[in-house]
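## retry 2 of 3
previous attempt timed out at serialization; input unchanged, resubmitting
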Amino acid sequence: PPAHAARAGGEKKAVGASVRVLQMDDFRDVKFDQEPCVVIFVVETVENAQPAEAAGTCLRWFNRKRKEGTNGELLRGKMSYAVLGLGDTNLLLDRQTTTAKDCNQAAQTLDSALAQLGANRIVARGEANDAVGLDEAVEPWSKALFPELAKANKALEDKKNAKMCFLYGSQTGNAAEICKNLAAEAAEKGYPVQVCSMNEVEPDDVVKPGAVITFIVSSTGDGDAPDNCDTFFTRLKRKAKKEAGSGGHAVQYAVLGLGDQNYSAFMAVPRAFTQIMENMGAKAFAKRGECDDTLGLYEQVDTWTTSFWPKLAAAQTNADRLRAGETIEEEDKEVVAAKVEPEVPAKAEQSKLEGVPPLAICRSEVAWLEKGVKYEAGAITPGPDESGAYTVASPYMASICEHRLLTNPESDRRVLHVAFDLGSSGIAYKPGDSIGIIPQNSSDLTHRLVSALAYDGEKAFTLNWKSDSDGGEKATHPLPHIKTPCTVIDAFQKYVDITSCPRKSLVRVLAEHCADDAEKTTLLHLSSRGGKADYDTQIRGESASLMTLLKRFPSCKPPLAELLDALPPLAPRLYSITCAPEVAPTTPSVAFSVVKYQIAGGEEQLGVATNWLDALTATPAPVPVYIKPSLKFGLPEDASAPLIMIGPGTGVAPFRGFLQSRREAAKLGVTLGEAILFFGCRKRDEDFLYDSDWDGFVADGTLSKFVCAFSRETSEKVYVQHKLREHIDDVAKLIANGAYIMVCGDGVGMAKDVHAALVEIFVEKRIFDVADAKAAEATLAAFTKSGRYVRDIWS
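## retry succeeded, writing output
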């Protein structure tokens, strides 16, 4: 809202502010009791100390509210004001009962009433007497007013821009899903909200006095910020350093952290957000939630949000008080999500349409381009960026220079070795790093999907912010992962995830746009709290996709903007590099399983990136790539330190690079410590990956021992954890001598089983005098912190 000047018989314009000039009798137009404002009252006192006719209604209204004695908070946090009185002692009729001051009685009465109603006076009242010359008082009062008016107007703009923000940093989509659901529920409760990924806004645009911010963020395996919040995170840290203790003045925040305790950097980023906000002087309005995916992510989120809502309401109420400099009681800064009690399943008839979530806020709208109009299509921007680096936002367009099958052609497993030519880019990598691939969805699936939605696939469009959105500043255009202008086909093939299991927020959007009432009811049920069991069985349990749901619910035809907003971005895929730069400086390679499986009904599901890369051997095309450095997973700096490597399946890929690097170091005279590698596969003649390499490493001493668990060659399945116990003496000796333990592969089962085996080995062999499992867990936790026990795992 602009600053306002209300007048009666005269006016004075403020400089440096947007100004409306009103008669005081039009004071209701200011909406001072609904939204913050700055008001300059210029009021005349006329004959016998009475207010000018045009000021009477306004003055009497405020004075009546003051006399009621119950309105002391009416204007608090809403109005900042100044009063200038104009009068003339010559107009005082009764000179014996009045004084010169009475020529400004109207200004005095108004000023007193506004102050007692809680309004903020920005400068002392001015009183001018026409009998001695108005300018004698008006000019000095104006000089005092304008600096204070500028401050008040800045505070007003800050307050106007302070928002209730729900900001997410999400790598796998969980944080985005939870954040959008919370924001939708907040909007349903009547709060004006903004919801977006953190990289869509600048810290200075949201971290403002009066702001109420909820961060929902996860950590990647190495403790990095997710891709869609890394820029914001970096700039927020910079702001905190520059504005320590002051940048978060009158800002309230809450952090909900998501993670998986199997990763060594569990909760690193959520905890960092808490520390950063505290360093800036912001106040936590709710305890930080820490939700562990291994213990039931969404159930823990529900537990946290139960106490979140009343605290959010209190934070909104406290925003003005904090801005005014008042002190409020602060919540504890840290808590792990409460234990979740198991749910008692409800009967179907009771649970139907119980707890249907609010419809997610759609912030964008489609602007169609006229057919025949030429346009420059949006596309991935090849690197390098301004700093000379190749990143996920500015990748290198590589070519595939090697492609070979690592498994038996008759096996139902198809594992490929693929190398990428980085040319003269100068991109460097080290063993343990990953290469990021920016893939595309299947062309066939994309066309079938667009057809099922009844979209014109060749029609081009751009995206704009919705005209009824919050109107705040944005760092990007809507849905920045969709590079517009583009065609509908390109949007679905290149930029959004159309193959993953639909989350409940997407199911809710699909329900909203079903023409058939029965289909709508079913989808509403599947998206609801009461339909959790059916959702788990019919959607998650069957690995359903968006296409699956469109086939089952053919009347569902969501508008393009709503669907694009509900679908997650098509995420890059990370693959461990399986070679060393000493051997392949410009051609890093990876090994991966080509993912294909059938779901209920016989529909075949294909892994996005693995099938795309496999197909590129027949139809070569540039592959957008970048290097994702590993912070902890890599060779020890001391080559003489013992090394234990555990990597079944394609988890063995990075250890090939480790050993190539060790071999090259040995050629230069570097002394190598003992190294043992535990590998696992089905059968020797089916999926024994890189078998000749391991033989060579053992033969030349690069590898002290190679141990393989063949899970399908005996009547009982044998896995790497069994081999660890079988070689307990070797493992215990290396650990006692300072070994580094590196684990790579499946985080759902293998990593937990290997960890349990290590705990047993510590206890049985009394390594470092460890006597029980609790002490072993503590020792492994210390190893993790120091970098001696590192796991590069995936779900």
